[in-house]
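Hey,
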Amino acid sequence: MKESGDVPVKDMKDHKDYASYFQSTYQPPSLKDAKKRGKEAVKILKDYDLEEDLKRIGVGKKFYIRTYGCQMNEHDTEVMAGIFTEMGYEPTTDVQEANVILLNTCAIRENAENKVFGELGHLKPLKLEKPDLLIGVCGCMSQEESVVTKILQTYDQVDMIFGTHNIHRLPQIIKEAYLSKEMVVEVWSKEGDIVENLPRVRKGNIQGWVNIMYGCDKFCTYCIVPYTRGKERSRRPEDIIEEVRHLARNGYQEVTLLGQNVNAYGKDFEDMEYGLGDLMDEMRKIDIPRVRFTTSHPRDFDDHLIEVLAKGGNLVEHIHLPVQHGNSEILKLMARKYTREHYMELVGKIKQAIPHAALTTDIIVGFPNETEEQFEETLSLVKEVQYDAAYTFIYSPREGTPAAKMIDNVPLEVKKERLQRLNATLNEISLSKNEAYIDSVVEVLVEGESKKNPDVLTGHTSSNKVVNFRGPKHLIGTIVKVHVTDAKTWTLRGNLLEETAGVIEG
């Protein structure tokens, strides 16, 4: 659905009103409009098929995709790589060789956007050198009107922009970009249908990412995701189960179930009651050593899910449970829809049912109106929960979110100082947690060579601890036993036990 207007794209720089460009394809983020959900039924499509004239369009050409942000974007990249391959393209890791370059973008933080704009600047000389090169911007940034407007105004080296809801339209977008000398913009504000039979080229054959749902309905005041990814919509369980079984048949050792709000899975089903707990129970029956999921929301973490996870087996004991803040008033400002007390009650239930659970989290410091006392409540929560690790962030406003309208009244120096104190506390706890592993034997999924030393292998335990050890390369892709001899803040080090020559069932 290319925009057809009276003003050609190449002439648009002379016009101040860029809004006309979005009349039929795009609506800017709006909390009011975005909350009007459920009006349009989401279709599950299984009839994806590449048109004959598109099957050889990429023969003799190469594609390059640079991915920013979360695992969901990595998953989207795998799908786009599959589509490119079906069109005859070959992958490359060298932009100089590429005939098509895609930047699969993240909108969650301003810094991520700045990296993309910087990369577009770097690509301009290459475009001048190779006029037939196609450059595209896709992913979450493409769903923001301010971003698309900026690209139209400033980056005329870009040939195509498309969003998160129409990745399956990539072949048609590529074709149009080749035929048209104007920028092709296809950004749908519609939530998006679920297209089941898209091709995919996965990274490696050890760990697989399986999307079980799309979108988010939580509308945390600081987060752009509900606007860029649309409403919550779940894949049918039979399609997910078959995809995981396929990975198991192909020798994958670990699967991560993905969703922007993964434990809201199934809440949109109208014909049955079926949630993440039910799905995880089915995962236990599949012959694959490890199954994880991310990212969960504390409000949707129900007792049935805890009960199923407590059964163990191939369900790992690592749970990522973003808290964001330790003070109930700030949590209310964030629209997290739970209190500190509710969160701590949930943590207590998890630890009681799964005593060896490894909990990790996300925390924001310096949210508008955060006082020193409120920040100290975050510190006290961290000490009480004893997280194994955490992703910590300084708050920065995202245009289009409700929080962006709040006064950002915590000085940057204060934010930085609080972040340092938070990280110091977390590092101390993480080191203590890791030191408890010394002289124990852990099972490690060997993922590859260490980036720092090719003679050292690296992998993760089921509790998501990174373990480095020396061993032969043929162990990559297997689960081995390692005797832990040393612990650092973020990693463990150990010696391979001689009897582990093959895969150990997890």
